[in-house]
Amino acid sequence: MLRLKPMDTEVECPFCGEPGEVEVDIDEDSPGEHEFIQDCAVCCRPWAVRIVVSPDGEVTVSVDRS
Ligand SMILES: [Zn+2]
Q1: In which domain, by residue range, is 54 found?
Q2: How does pLDDT run across 51-62, given as a tens digit for each residue?
Q3: What is the 1 CA–ligand 1 centroid distance (Å)?
Q4: What is the total count of domains within the chain?
Q5: How far is the CA of 36 from the centre of ligand 1 (A)?
Q6: Cα(first)–Cα(last) distance of the chain, in Å?
Q7: Residue 32 alpha carbon to ligand 1 centre in Å
């Protein structure tokens, strides 16, 4: 059974430095890396969002300039 955990994760925009939120649906039962592009709500520049789910279900979110 697929168990998705919606998360709002606060990050800092790598372009303008403003705080923003990444909306992600994490499947904690599927460890691995997920990458996608999300535009900053403030400056509209594209974030390269990287989600890492560790084997014990710990979720790490980072953003970088794409
Ligand atoms: Zn920004």
Answers
A1: 4-65
A2: 898 888 888 889
A3: 37
A4: 1
A5: 16
A6: 34
A7: 27
